[in-house]
Amino acid sequence: MTIGAMLDEWYPVGIFGQLGPEGRSTQLMGEPIAVAADGNGGARVTDSTGRTLPVRVRYGHVWTSLGEPKKELFAIPEADQPGRRFVDVGVVRVRCSPLRAVENFLDIAHFPFVHTDILGAEPHTEVQAYKVEIREDVDEVWATQVEFYQPQAAKSASGGITTQYMYRVAAPTATILYKTCPPRPSEWDVITLFVQPLAEDLCDVWPWMALFDDDTPMTDLIHFQQTIFLQDRSILENQVPRLLPLDPGMEMPTRADLTSVAYRRWLKRHNYTYGAQLVAQ
Fold this sequence. Notes:
Layout: E1 11-15, E2 24-28, E3 31-37, E4 43-47, E5 55-58, E6 61-64, E7 85-88, E8 92-94, H1 98-106, H2 111-114, E9 131-135, E10 140-150, E11 161-171, E12 174-180, E13 188-199, E14 202-211, H3 218-236, E15 244-245, H4 258-270, E16 276-277
Parallel strand pairs: 15-16
Antiparallel strand pairs: 1-6, 2-3, 3-4, 5-6, 7-14, 8-14, 9-10, 10-11, 11-12, 12-13, 13-14
């Protein structure tokens, strides 16, 4: 097990609004931790020795680190935008590498085959050319100019539309999707995937959304997103190898995999190797 630079990153460890004084026991990168409300509107996280870990409460979740983060938790400006509904989707445990969970979220080509008649449908299977870059000023991976036809792009959508997408990898296990907002075409819906590494091949996934949708019941919004991710889980848990390969020669990428290639290159550059496979076996 090689934790590497990922030790000093921020990770989600629970939904803040669901914490009580008794808290919850969980683990982070193999280390047992306890997460609880602190009674003062914040949260407290301790490890198995009683050491208090750094804490942030943001985007509906409690975040912590086993190390000493070199930078503040990434910003999502839409989280402060008036009129949005913030959706804590819950948690899904997945028997896969936390890095695999992020990479799958970045994959566009699987929409028609895994999320049939929701996020994609045959014969609309071609992935159009799009732009991918590692933005050096913010040290993030971005994919822009992404388009895909979707029968039901969001719970608020009333029919099929060609959806505009932007993908952003803000941290090794945190990725943010900006997509067409059907009720407000001038805005973006924000859908995130916050991943808690439990072990190198096991993770808890905490989706969170910031939407413009005044009509859909909260339960329906949560159910819609959970349905999407549960469709992904069976794929993730059957991927081989279980860890994410970082050696370029281990898998053959296609044009649809440009974001994945950039993500893997970025991980390798920063020694973000927890949950990764470095050489062919």
